[in-house]
Amino acid sequence: MKRMAIGLICAFGLVSEAAADRWLFEAPEPGRRAYVEMHLGTNLPAPVDVRMTNSIGARFTGDIDMRSKLGGVLALVHGYYPTRRIHLETSVAYGQFTNFTMRFKNGFAGNPDAGRKRDGTGQIHMFAATAAAFYDFPEVSETIVPFVGLGGGFAHMKQDGVGKKGGRFLISDSDTFGVLCLMAGVNITMTEKVDLSLRYSGIFRSEAEFNDRNAAASFRSEMQAGFDNAVSVGFRYFYR
Predict the structure, then answer these.
(1) pTM score > 0.85 for this model?
(2) Rounded to whole angstroms, what are the CA distances from 140 to 16, 17, 48?
(3) How many CB atoms within 10 Å of residue 87?
(4) How many CB atoms lie within 10 A of CB 175?
């Protein structure tokens, strides 16, 4: 009996391993191996911790909670399925954010803005290049396929006159920093060649620094490392 149990366990393990190998390394469907994709999306409002310093004195040094409202993001993607479950992507993206608020927190002694929430002004432009790997779950449905993914790359942020609305000290500078992306979503088959893709992205970003000099002083803004969220909808076209 003991030998029979061991034999059944071994047989089950071999069958499971064979099934996993078949699912993992199964070739993609004909005509659905390589694709291009365009995504339109937006960030989800989230605080960004910023440390601001002005050379005219400590009263203009302190922490600010910048909270971007909805902005627009456009991403162009190229992808490839080496197997039915695994696909690899490279992408470039551009985002623009013009509507945000600034809450002056600790610091800023003697500054009338201390502890207050103010409207921001200026524009923030974001350029990003990333690569990612995804794992699909085609057994869930023939037409609605969930997926998860992990990627990373670099982002370049340009601040154009960013600061308190009506204020004297505005940042106009740019910096490049690293990003790590966690993604999840579903692909919905529309036709043999076209899918609709719905995606959530959680983005970890490293810190960045922006400097500016005007007639009054030298001004520095340090964006702390943090986490952002984004959602997008895209159309995928399989060209082979």
Answers:
(1) no
(2) 18, 20, 37
(3) 23
(4) 17
Residue bearing tokens 């034999």: 7
Torsion of CA 197, 201, 205, 208, to 10 degrees: 60
CATH numbers and ranges of domains, the chain: 30-238 (2.40.160.20)
Q: How far apart, in whole angstroms, are the C-alpha atoms of residue 224 and residue 209?
A: 9
Phi-psi region of 57 (alpha: psi -120 to 50; beta: other; left: phi over 0): left
Written as six digits, the tokens of 60 are 């203009």
pLDDT in tens, 128-157: 999 999 999 988 888 999 999 999 999 999
User: What are 83-136's pLDDT values in tens digits?
Assistant: 989 999 999 999 988 777 777 766 555 566 666 777 777 888 999 999 999 999
> Cα separation of 114 and 59, whole Å?
9
Which DSSP state fits 2?
H
